[in-house]
Each structure stands twice: as C-alpha cells, then as structure tokens.
Write a structure and sequence with these properties.
By secondary structure, chain A is mostly helical. Chain A is built from 6 helices and 2 strands. Chain A has a two-stranded antiparallel sheet with strand order 1-2. Chain A binds a DNA duplex (30 and 30 nucleotides) through helix 3.
Amino acid sequence: MLSQTAEYALRTVLYLAAEKQDTLFRVSEIAEDLDVPRNYLSKTLHQLAKAGILTSSRGKHGGFRLTKAPSRITLAEVVAPFNGPTGARICLLGRTACSDSDPCPAHGKWKRVSGEVSTFFRETTVGDLLEGPAARVPRKRAGAR
Amino acid sequence: MLSQTAEYALRTVLYLAAEKQDTLFRVSEIAEDLDVPRNYLSKTLHQLAKAGILTSSRGKHGGFRLTKAPSRITLAEVVAPFNGPTGARICLLGRTACSDSDPCPAHGKWKRVSGEVSTFFRETTVGDLLEGPAARVPRKRAGAR
DNA sequence: TTAAATTATCATAGCGATGTGATAATTACT
DNA sequence: AGTAATTATCACATCGCTATGATAATTTAA
C-alpha cells in the first residue's frame, strides 16, 4: 500500500510522537530502534524536514524532532513526499482523464472505495494513532536480532 | 494503486469482455487498441492464461479469449498474478504480524478501510464494470498517435 | 583552535518492474 | 512440404526505489 520509504517515514513520525517532543533524537537511535537502514533513513528524515514535518538540528547534540503536535499532523502530510496513494491516482484503469463527467468503466464503483482511502489519510492524524494500542514500539533488547 | 502490469491485465480483460467472447484476439490487435507495449503485453497475457483467466491459441489464426463469462471473473483474480494489493498487505506499518489480537497502532482504524478495498476487488466482477459507462474502449483511428 | 558528534550530500550499487528485440515453437493454409 | 502468422520464450536494456559507504558541512565543547 505504502512505499517502503513512506512506511519508514510514518513509523518514525509515530515513534517521535510517542516520545517527548522537545528532545532531539539521533538518526542512529531511531534507525536502530525501528530496525531501518540508517543512511537511508537519514535521507528520508531530511525529506520530512524539508516538508516541514520534522525539524532537524546539525552538529553535536543534533537530531530530529516533530515540528507540530501529533494531533495536527495528518497521515497524508507524512506520506505525501513519498508518492503515497492518498488520492492522487483515482482512476483504477490509469486514465489521465477520469471524472464524473468523463468516467472510465470502473469509475462509479471505484470512486467510493478510493475516496474512503483518501479520506482516511487526509483526516487521520498521528495523534489519532497514538490513541491506538501499542503506540509505543518497545525498544529492542541489546543484541536482539 | 495497481501496478502497471496489473492495470494492463485489467484493461485487456475488460476489452475482451466487451467484445465477442468466442473469437480470438491477437496481441498486436489488443496492444494497439489499448496503446500498450506489444511484447510486454504478450508476457502479461501469457501470465493471465497460466492463471486460467484467458485461453490462448498458438499458430496462425491464434490469439486470446476469455475462459469464463465476465460475470464470473472477479477483479481480484485478474490482478492477483501481479501483486495486486487485494488485501494481502493489511498492516499499514509493514508489520509481519498485525492482527486484532496483536495490533499495530494503526490497526483499528486502517482495518476498516483496507477491508473495503479488499472487498471491492473480491466482489466486483468484470461483468459489473461492463455495466458502467464507456465500457467499450473506442478503437483508435488509424494513424492516430 | 581542535576534536568529536551529528546531519547533509555525493557517488554508486542491487534489484525488481517495465520495456524492447530476436528467436523458437506451433498452427493453418496452400 | 513449405510458407506465413501467431504465441512462447530468451536475452538484454532501462529506470526508479532501495540501500550502502564515503565525504562535506555544521555545531558543541574542551
């Protein structure tokens, strides 16, 4: 559903949302806890920072933190920089033009379903997910593999 | 939403469903009408034949046709050989284990939406789409590009 | 000023999805 | 038998996503 990169981004944002938001977290710290390739995550977080979702600090004692409160970050925002299918590609058959007035054969039935997916990403916030179970990812035990 | 290949497959099945089902259609014919790479489509149709959705005939006067009636072919069947997200990947966060009893933070809210997508593919048939508008793709004019 | 720690950036590799071209296998027709 | 038409298969090219490693830039602190 989501690209690997978008999934990393979402997991990181959720991770930061579950922790204290006024402290900085290092990439190496996040990467290890989430079991994600470190250098790759570094670039992904940089993209999230460019998108205004994270704030980065360089140098010693640098790191990343959320820019906004979790309840004000939608999943669509998080996923958007990584081609998340949050509603852009509506037409199931790949038509460049597919609308109510110029519909493809699947338009009528697919519109409702794709609309629900789109709505989910647009209206669900990171804060909403925090209310769910197991929001806090347990830290890996040292040496665990 | 769908991979390019799955989209080609679906469009081809829809194309064949809209035509007479007892006649054979050549790959070159389909590829031109749908504006899809010919040799690539050839392999895709071969996969659909292996999946039992199409029947292929080799040699002169060969081609492809639907094996079953359109109303008995679900979209999930068509898309399945091409990694269609018809419900396999349920967990939004990529957890290998994510269920009601061991849920990820997004499980509760995402389950409903992903379930609707899955249901759409499982319960919608090619015949259902034929009832929609513009099921018949207009043939391209000769020389049109 | 120097060293250490950290993000930013660059170069490149691996891999699967997508696409192209050529050849083999099969069938129909003469 | 031979030829043409068509699918089946093989070999390879291309491209973007994913990933790795190295270096640059920045900041803190001694």
